[in-house]
Amino acid sequence: MKFNKLLVFIAVFFTASLFSQSTKVYRAERDKVHNLVHTKLKVDFNFQEKEMNGEEWVTLTPHFYETDKVTLDAKAMVIYKVTMNNQPLEYNYDDYELIINLPRAYKRNEEFTLYIKYTARPERVKQKGSAAITSAKGLYFINPTGFDKNKPTQIWTQGETEASSCWFPTIDAPNQKTSQEIYITVPKKYVTLSNGKLEKQTTNADGTRTDYWNFTQKHAPYLFFMGVGEYEVIKDKYKDIPVDYYVEKEYAPYAKDIFGNTPEMLAFFSKITGIEYPWNKYAQIVGRDYVSGAMENTTAVIHGERAYQTPGQLIDENVQENTIAHEAFHHWFGDLVTTESWSNLTVNESFANYSEYLWLEHKYGKDEADAHLFEDIEGYKSGQNFDKHLVRFYYDDKEDMFDAVSYNKGGAILHMLRNYLDDEAFYEGLNTYLTDNKYGTGEAHQLRLAFEKVSGKDLNWFFNQWYFNSGHPKLSISYDFNKLRKTVTVNIIQSQLNEFKFPFAIDVFEGSKRTRHNVFVEGRDASFTFPFTNHPDLIQVNADGVLLCDINENKVLSDYIHQLKYAQNYVHKREALLEVAKHQDDKKAFNAVADALNNDFYKIRILALENINLINKYSKKNVIDQIMKIAQNDPKTLVQAAAIETLGKLTDPALKPVFEKGLESKSYSVLGKSLVGMYYIDKQLAIQKSKTLPLAVKKIIATPLTRIYLEENDDEELSFIASNVMSGMFLSPNKKIQSLYKKAFDKIGKSNNTEAIQNLSDDIVAKGLQYKQYNFDQVGVNLLRQMAQMQKTSKPSNKEKHLKVIQIAMAKLLE
After folding, report:
1. The CATH number fitting domain 474-554, selected from 2.60.40.1840, 2.30.170.40, 2.40.50.180, 3.30.710.10
2. How much is the pLDDT for 5?
3. CA 508/CA 702 separation, integer angstroms
4. Which of 73, 181, 249, 563 has the smallest count of CB within 10 Å of its CB?
5. What is the pLDDT of residue 619?
C-alpha cells in the first residue's frame, strides 16, 4: 500500500488526535483456529443497487486443535445458505462474523469445503478507513448507473487492511494464506482484472461474459482483487512474464510512458533480492475515486488517478514512478512474505518505502535518492511521530499503523542498517529472510535473525532501539581546536530520553581536501579527536547523511559557504544553500548562491533559483543572463520553469522573448510559469494564450491561471477557478497557494456568477463527503454559510438563485 500523502495531510489538519498512540489495548497476532487452503468465487453485479451476488467454495483445515465450528469474517452481507457436500449447515450471523456449525469435529490437517451463497452489500459496511485508506467497504462501484457523463463506470476492490471480507466470507487476517479462483460475470463491454492468470472467457446468452481467473499460489486474503471497467490493455513483458497496463482509452498512448519502467524494476528487484520475480504476471490498473495512493494486490496492482499523466506532465517528471516501484517491491515484501500482524507492518511497508530509494539510486543516481530520503524523513519529523515504536503492539486501530513511522521512518532505518552491514550483507540478508519465509509470514525478529545469520553480527542493539523503541538521536555538536597539537575534538551530546548508539561519519575539510572519519557513538556524551595539517575550514558531522537524527551546532556564514561548495551529500548542500541565501547582502554569499545555479544536481539548481535575490547591489547582469540561458536550455524542464519564475519577478520587458519561448514549451510547468511572467509585461498576450488552451491543460496549470484571472478580475473565468478552490485552500501544504485560493473563494462568494457559485458549492459538497471522517463536512457547512452571508452582504442580482443553490448544497452535507 502506498498511502496518499495528501490524504495524510488532510487527516493531520482536521483530526488533531489522529496519530496519537494508545497504551491501552495489546494487539496480538490473530489466533489461528483454522487455516485457509483455497477460495473459489463466482460473482456478478447489481449495478443499480451497488451489490454483488456471490457463491463461494472455501476450503479450510483446523490449525492444530480439533474443532466442530468455523468462524468467517463476513461484513454486511445477506447469507442465503451454507452447505457442505450439498447438506445444509446451521450457522449464526451478526453482520460481522459467520459462525458455522460443522457436521462433526475435524482434526488437524483434515480439509473440508464449505459452500456459501450470499450477497455483498458494501454500502452497508460500517467499518471506517484511515488517513492512508479513506474507506473500508472493500467493494466499490464507481458511477454504476452511468449518471455522471464525465466519469466511467468501474468496479474495483480494496482489501487492506481487513475489507476483503466485505465482498467474500473469509478469515480476514494477514497471517492467512490461500490460493484462489474467481469467475467474474460482467456485461461484455467491460474488461476484468484479478489475481493470477485469465484462463478462460465465456460469452453468455444474456449479453454478459464470464472471465475465469486462476491463481494457484498462496497469498493473504487482503491481496485479493477484482477490477471491472472499459479499459484498454497495453501489453508489455518482463522476460516471459506478461506485464500489462489497464488504462482508460484517453491515456492508452501514454501508458508505457507512465508505467514503462516496470519491467526494469522487476529485473532490478529480482537481482538485489536474489529471488526471481515469484508470480506469473504483473498487471497495473488505474481506478477512479480510488481510496488511497496504490495497492499491491498480488499480480494486480491498482493505482489512483494521480497515475494518469500526459506528455506535458511527464516531460517534467513522472510523479507516479516512486509508487510504481513501491508496489512492485511489495511483491517480495508483503505478498511473498507477509506481516504476521498489523503490529509488524514494517516488514511490508518499510521495505516498500525503501525500495523507492533503491530504485532512484539505481536509475537516476545517489543525489536523486538522497533527496527523496530527505523528503521522507521530513515527513516523519513533521508529524506527531516521535513517541511511536516502529513495531507497535499497542494502538487504537489497525489503520493507525499506516503512518510515517511504518513507512518513512522504517525506510530510513533500513538505509542505516544497509550502511552498517554493507551492501553485500544487506542484500544477502534480504534473500535469507525471503527464502526462509516465502509464501508465509514474517516479523521483525525473523528479519533480525536473517541479517545476523548472514553477517555474523549481533543486531539486538540495533533492533531494540530502532524497531522496539521510539524517537531518534537529538545531537548537540561542539568543536575544540588545539592549534599546538593540530587536532580537533568533536563533542557529541544526546539530549533525547532514549540513549542511542550508532555509527557516525565525520568529514574534516582543509580547503577542498576532505578526510572521512567513521566513528561509533556509544554513550550519551562522546568525544572524538582527529589530526589536521592546516586549520580545518569545515567539520561536517553525519557526513554521509545516513543517521536519522536532529543536529544542533553553531556554524557561521563561512562554514555554510564552504559546505555548499564542497559537501558531498544532498542534504548538506541543501542546508547550506538555504542558510547562505539568508545573507545575500554579503557578496561572498550572493556569489555562492549564484555558483549553485551550475550545480550538477537539478534540485540544487532549482533551490538556488528559488532563493537567489536579484534585487540587490551584487545582482550583476551576467547572473541574470545566466538565468535566462537556464530558462531556455537547462536539460530539466523543472529547472527551466524555476528560472522563468525567478525572471518573472523582475517584470522586465526585455525578458519577453524568454517568456514567449516558454509559452511554446511542451512542459506544462514551463508553460504555467511563462504565462505568469508574460502577464506582468504583456497582459493581452498572456490572457489570449490562456484562453486558447484546452480545458485539460488549464486544469493541470490551474494555479498560475487562477493567479492571472484574479488579478485581471476576469469574472468569465470564475466558474473555472471555482472547481479548484477547495483543493487549493485546504489540500495544498503551500501557504501561498492556500492564500491565493482563499482570495478566490471570497471573490466567488460575493460574485454574481451563477455557474461559479454552483461549481464551488458542488465541490464543497464533494470534498465534504469524501473526507467526512475528518469532519470536513462540517468545514463545508461553515464555508457554505460564509458564502450565503457574502451573497446577502454584496447583494448581487442573482442573490436569491444563489442562496437556493447554497441551501441545497448545505442540505446534502447535513443529511
Report:
1. 2.60.40.1840
2. 62
3. 48
4. 249
5. 78
